[in-house]
Design brief:
The protein is of the alpha+beta class and 390 residues long. Helix content is 33%, strand content 27%. It folds into 2 domains: 258 residues, Zn peptidases (Aminopeptidase); 112 residues, Alpha-Beta Plaits. Strand 19 and strand 20 form a beta hairpin. The longest helix is centred in the N-terminal third of the chain and has 20 residues. The mean pLDDT is 94.
Length: 390
């Protein structure tokens, strides 16, 4: 027999506030680079609670119209501070967002993303702020709302983590069932390749041309793309080249990515891609030049079992009736950027579904359970013994 779920920590009015705030946030368009309106709504909501927000210069650094927002809510006699983090931006919108309830879950009435990634977590953080501002918290709370997460963690990478007073933190940004905790995340590289051949009339002098598109095609055909193994993926994301149907194309460019757990595996995947690009350019029927640039977008990580925020996350989930499940993620989150600066953080599943896709949704139950878990995180962090290893 399944044990009954523990009672919710929040009342009916708080649940209505959470769902209403979520729907309102989703209606505010905030694709990466255009987060200002969403940021202003978050700031206004916190200001109404008497909570001040600070904005950094990440907007200038990343090309966004808004910076990262940091807010602090003091606890009553707290000896520990805890960070909760969510991002304000969404992927580009295919259609306007009009949240509707269907079969117990929020969806977009139009055929496009809902923006639950990561507006569900933003709404939870605002509901948590409302709860602890009125009823108190056992720890000091820091709330970080980042920009540009969907563009290679731009906002979090620009954020100065030394500003944080917290001992550790939690990011609610994985689209999977509540209870899952991300134990590791890959290192990510971006590669750009520019092939240069020679233009010629395709019908009169094709033998005088050297096709950059052919070289790029040969390179792609020789590569291992998709999932190379359990923890390594390679993708060719864009290809562009040529000027007209009747011209042998002089230029062609590719943008690719490689992800793998661990720097060594990621660097090996990158080296293989670079080799294939040069080999294709040098084929006799291609004979092109190629320039390749490689950029590390973010570093991967693996959390040790002794990690304090990991222990707190597991305890909070159990307190709310969820058995913790450790998972590996093929994607990244603001955790990657914060850990790279030495700030201990854990990424937790938020119960959203099909992120980045038309049909994205989050159930009302998951949204409300996420708030319960977030509040439990504060309690479990406060219960850590003062001398506990962090």
């Amino acid at each position: 027999m399944t044990a009954p779920a523990p009672p919710s920590r929040v009342g009916e009015l708080e649940r209505r506030y959470l769902n209403g705030t979520f729907a309102e946030l989703c209606r505010i368009e905030s694709p990466s680079g255009r987060e200002r309106r969403c940021g202003e709504r978050v700031t206004a909501e916190l200001r109404a609670l008497g909570v001040k927000t600070e904005e950094d210069d990440a907007g200038t650094l990343t090309g966004s119209d808004c910076g990262n927002l940091l807010a602090r809510i003091p606890g009553a006699g707290a000896t520990r501070s805890v960070l909760l983090c969510a991002h304000l931006d969404t992927v580009p919108l295919q259609e306007p967002i009009e949240p509707v309830l269907r079969d117990g879950g929020w969806e977009n009435a139009n055929p496009g993303v809902l923006g639950a990634d990561n507006k569900a977590a933003v709404a939870v953080l605002l509901a948590l702020a409302r709860h602890v501002s009125r009823q108190g918290a056992p720890v000091d709370v820091e709330l970080l709302f980042t920009v540009g997460e969907e563009t290679a963690l731009a906002g979090a990478r620009a954020f100065d983590a030394s500003r944080l007073r917290s001992d550790f933190g939690f990011v609610l940004d994985h689209a999977s069932p509540i209870g899952e905790v991300v134990l590791d995340s890959p290192t990510h590289f971006r590669l750009e390749a520019s092939f240069r051949g020679a233009a010629a009339h395709a019908g009169i002098r094709p033998e005088e041309g050297r096709s950059a598109i052919l070289a790029a095609a040969r390179a792609l055909a020789s590569m291992r793309l998709g999932r190379l193994d359990e923890h390594t993926t390679v993708n060719a994301g864009t290809i562009a080249g040529g000027t007209a149907m009747n011209v042998v194309p002089e230029h062609c460019s590719l943008v690719l990515e490689a992800r793998a757990l661990g720097d060594e595996a990621a660097e090996a995947a990158v080296a293989e891609i670079v080799d294939r690009l040069h080999e294709a350019a040098n084929l006799p029927d291609c004979d092109c030049d190629v320039d390749v640039s490689v950029q590390r977008m973010f570093s991967g990580y693996r959390l040790p079992a002794s990690s304090a925020p990991l222990r707190v996350a597991e305890a909070a989930l159990r307190l709310c009736g969820h058995e913790p499940v450790h998972i590996s993620s093929g994607g990244a989150s603001d955790v990657n950027a914060l850990l790279a600066q030495g700030f201990r953080t854990v990424n937790m599943a938020n119960g959203t579904e099909r992120n980045h896709e038309p049909g994205e949704r989050v159930s009302v139950v998951a949204l409300e359970e996420m708030l319960d878990v977030a509040l439990a995180l504060l309690d479990e962090a406060a219960d850590l013994p003062p001398g506990a290893a962090l």
